[in-house]
Amino acid sequence: MQSSQSRPEALAAGGQVSDGSPEPPPLDPARHALFLDVDGTLAEICPEPSQVAVPPATVAALAALQRALDGALAILSGRSGAAIDLLLQPLRLPYGANHGAEFRRADGQARRLEPSAALPGIVAALRQRAAGWPGVLVESKPLGVAVHYRMAPPRERDVHDLVHEVAAAHDGQFDVLTGKMVYELKPHGVDKGRALREFMRAAPFAGRVPVMAGDDLTDESAFAAAQEAGGFGIKIGPGDSIAPWRLSGPPELARWLQALRAKAGAIQ
């Protein structure tokens, strides 16, 4: 997802839009750090967030790659930290959850922003307004709220206007993110690019070359951060992106991860 700007921040800042090459290069386990989104990247997008599942073979590949990369593997997602752990169990990977508002380091130390006192009232108001829009789903998160219209596409303008109205009424506490059939309120000033940069300042990520894979507009800030540090982004699925590489969807990413796992095993 992206902020309420008409283009992703990285593109507006002059990043070049790329159609993406069909296959990203293999990674060097001794040199690279890997960052991954979840929905639409490790897992297919579903009508309801609760229906999403990461294939067990992909979880096994992540476990092997975490070892091969000496721990330099992290998740950057709009989901909560608890939801990430549930989807990837038994793995407990470092994460920048809720777009970086929740952060767990490789050593297990975690911190998160305090939720706004206004959030419960916002969620209740959104649910009340959306109750008359069949198919519109209000997803409460620990630090924000998402309003999905995947099952009610004609309501896109209504959802857009409602979420922006709520954001405007709360004095800059929240940013509006625009994603695939969803508008979301997140704490002001956090994004995946900042989370990636924070990871890269500490072991085991420091000194490595970052690679980020993601499917949505909020991943663009992380692509930009990776490229600033000499790495690159991998766009999953269609759409404009500054990422120079592209894979068609989660199944193709899973195959790429399995190939990395096999290569790392051969090296070790």
From TrEMBL:
Transmembrane segments: none annotated. It catalyses: alpha,alpha-trehalose 6-phosphate + H2O = alpha,alpha-trehalose + phosphate. InterPro entries: HAD-like_sf, HAD-SF_hydro_IIB, HAD_sf, OTSB-like, Trehalose_PPase. Its EC number is 3.1.3.12. The keyword Iron-sulfur does not apply. Pathway: Glycan biosynthesis; trehalose biosynthesis. Pfam families: Trehalose_PPase. GO terms for molecular function: metal ion binding; trehalose-phosphatase activity. The keyword Magnesium applies. SUPFAM superfamilies: HAD-like. Its cofactor is Mg(2+). Keywords: Hydrolase, Magnesium, Metal-binding. Gene3D superfamilies: HAD superfamily/HAD-like, Trehalose-6-phosphate phosphatase related protein, domain 2. Belongs to the trehalose phosphatase family. PANTHER family: TREHALOSE 6-PHOSPHATE PHOSPHATASE. This is Trehalose 6-phosphate phosphatase. It comes from Bordetella genomosp. 13.
